[in-house]
UniProtKB/TrEMBL annotation:
Native source organism of the sequence: Ureibacillus sinduriensis BLB-1 = JCM 15800
Residue ranges constituting the DUF2089 domain according to the UniProt record: 9-40, 42-87
Name under which the protein is recorded: DUF2089 domain-containing protein
Amino acid sequence: MAYPLLTNCPVCSKALKITKLQCNHCQTTIENEFEVSKLAALGQEQLHFVEIFLKCRGNIKEVEKELGISYPTVRGKLDEIISALGYSTHKKPEVDKKKIVSLLEKGEITAEKAIELLKEGED
């Protein structure tokens, strides 16, 4: 019987390293430090959600139907998974290019400031 991959130490909760791989057929053993996917850090429930999300091709309405949960719950689960993978869930505010140009034309901001504001929208 195979057990799910542990990613954190059951004693101190720090990240575990995979250091040994073995072939079940010929018993070849390879020892080194191996990296796992960020997805390996997700819990079973989160992985199930990701599978459903992919099966539904990212269509939130279909995920709602499949899991019997509301739109805000789907969004919340997505944000939770995004955070667990190490990414930010905060959207950057959109840059109003017309407003920046207008401020520049009126002399309310310098060209340097306009460039800085426009570059913020590119990140």
